[in-house]
Amino acid sequence: MGSWPAFAAQPVEILVLHVWGTPPGQAAASTMHPIAQLIEAFNAKKTGITVKGETPSTDYFATLQKAQAQIAAGRAPALVTTPWSNINFAVQGLQVATLEQIGGNEVRPVLANYKDEVLPLVTMNKQTVGLPLAFSCPVMYYNNDIMKQAGVDPAELFKDWASFKRLGAKVKAVTGNPILGLGNNADWEAQSIIQCNGGRVLDDNFKPAWDSPESVAAMTTIADINKAGLYLQSTTAESNAAFIGGSLAIWMASIASLGGLSKQVKFDLRTSPFPVFPGKPRKMSSGGSFLGCYARDKEQQRAAWEFLKFVASKEGVEIWLKTGYLNSTKFDYPVLPGQESAYIQLREGLTRESPWPGSRAAEIQKVWGTYVQRIWAGDIGAEEGCKQARQQVEPLLPKS
Amino acid sequence: MSVPLSATTREDAAAIEPAAATRRRTWSRNRLWEAATPYVFVAPVLVIVGVFIYWPLIYSIYLSFFDWNFVSPVKEFVGFDNFVRLAVDPRFHRALYGTLVYIVALVPAQVILPLGLALLLWPIRRSRAQAFYRVTLFSPTVISFSVAALLWLWIFHPLQGFLNKVIFDFGFAKVNWLSNPNTAIWCVIVVSVWKTFGFNLLLYLAALEAVPTDYVEAASLDGAGGWQMFRLIRFPLITPTFFFVLVTTVISVNDEVFGAINVMTDGGPFDRSSNIVYYLYEQGFRVFQIGSASAVSLLIFIGTAILTWIQFRYVERRVHYG
């Protein structure tokens, strides 16, 4: 462990709300979640700051909700894992303290260690809203045993959406079940698929752009896959369980699930980049969260910054990367088996996860997410669905 | 004629006066204490009810006229905007429809079904079999809603669930129970009935136990059959319990399904299993629109008050309090 300067004469305790609980019975240093290892490693340095980690929920939204309640009660947590998609809400709704506010001149050298394509994701109005932490993108997890049984070459299957639909029928013949399940919130995967067809979810002014012909065509693609009986309409928990249980061949979800899935499945687990649209580049959305500082008290802010510096250090990054998240820094670490697909997508250029605008950001996301599910499930046509979603979202957009 | 007071008498009078004053003061203190005693005893409850029921109610009425997210230092006064927005929000309309479906399906299921079961169990009240049935049927009530919903998640699982395995074995196609907009709400209803009817069953069994046997014996001697015995003797005498079950079920039915909705469907697919209470939760604690959530809570309060008033106005008159 490297040396770390003592911070304060008086002990300071800060609270970090995050979404990664250490499973029961895995409190030993080697098996506890890397976020807990990070906290423990920092506390071991005895800087005068004690970091306390809490997992109110494994859901980003619920955790942010808990943070919001604590801020409202005047007990703001120092740091909270804030999803990229809630960056506008963090700034406008929760008044997050920027890194420049809490770290002053020390911020620039710390951020210099981060990849150039990552920093714009946490930058708003030329201010750094938080420290990039969980950096991910969606990938296709697949059960290679089923592919072998089906005699399907995964590279060919995932080449583009047309080949996916064509060869998917052969995969379906093995299990008799739909082959594609959805993890995470539907709007996240939808953003990637739309972008891969040249569309956008939000324009540069954060206004809906999901009803363009390119976007509608992209949405129709999954609806067609559903019509062909290849898409499993289910909750995330259901599709996750089905994939782990071996009854679902393909699961599109965050690369962050790699670590957990690797331990849970009993088959040959592989990953693939998303299929593309013929002749168009892949343009996936990033995802995950940054550590935002919500402390109102100067001493708490300063202590939070000390912890953030540790998280951003080589030692901290090394601990964190055990999670399976992508390396968002310039520190050189080996790619874990299965992460290759995500790094391919990263090199091709990841975009920011849709930063939903205004104080009704979460409501807008909810409305759009519901329409995505309706369109994919065939409950409404893609064109009509995109149009209705826009109409429903218009009154929720910021007035200016 | 005035009688001059002797020195001793004057001294006595001087001594008596303060004593009388003290008595008067004591008497008035006693009167005051006597008058205040009920209020003193009731005060803790009044404070608790005031702080935890009436203050939130008043404050939520106040908040329903603002656009606020709980945290922002600025609450923007928006008048009736939150109510207008609800009037045109399709998600709210779906939640209202869901609320109606839950009431129409669950009120009879939780009021009539337990009554029917209680009547079936009543004749075997002295046997061990009834104890067995009582425990079996009441057990789901004591399980937490989250645990019960998790258990049912596995039963309803589209590919690996018990229910689909059974229907598949019988040659039917698998159903996406919780992701199909036509079945999800019925799954929530089934779980809610399974989870909550046991409590009402126990209430009915207790009420049937309390029916005076001389009425039953007299009716029996007069030749009353099973149906007549129920319609003319037992049911009228258990109407206070029936009325209590009806009122509390109508009030609580939409709260009770919240746990199942939250764990099993998240209101989906496409808000089709949502109800007004879940919508309120989403507005307040998922999308952080406290003003909108407060407006919904006010509507729930008014709606519940109206439904309860209707029941007291039209159903209570048929209740026999003995």
Radius of gyration of chain A: 21 Å
Largest sheet of chain A: 5 strands, mixed
Structural class of chain A: alpha/beta
Number of helical stretches of at least 4 residues of chain B = 11
Spatial gap, N to C terminus of chain B: 71 Å
Structure summary:
The complex is a heterodimer of chains A (400) and B (322). Chain A is an alpha/beta fold and 400 residues long. Chain A is built from 17 helices and eleven strands.
What can you see in these coordinates?
The complex is a heterodimer of chains A (400) and B (322). Chain A has 400 residues and is of the alpha/beta class. Chain A has helices spanning 34-43, 60-72, 87-93, 99-103, 107-111, 144-150, 154-157, 161-175, 186-196, 213-227, 236-245, 258-264, 298-312, 314-320, 340-349, 361-376, 382-393; strands spanning 12-17, 49-54, 79-83, 123-124, 127-128, 131-136, 138-143, 180-182, 250-254, 269-272, 287-293. Chain A has a 5-stranded mixed β-sheet. In chain A, strands 8-9-7-10 form a 4-stranded mixed β-sheet. Chain A has a two-stranded antiparallel sheet with strand order 4-5. Chain A is globular, with a radius of gyration of 21 Å. In chain A, 53% of the residues are buried. The mean pLDDT of chain A is 90. With 322 residues, chain B is mainly α. A two-stranded antiparallel ribbon of chain B has the order 1-2. In chain B, helix 2 crosses helix 11, helix 3 runs parallel beside helix 7 (184-209) and helix 9 (226-265) runs antiparallel to helix 11. Chain B is flat.
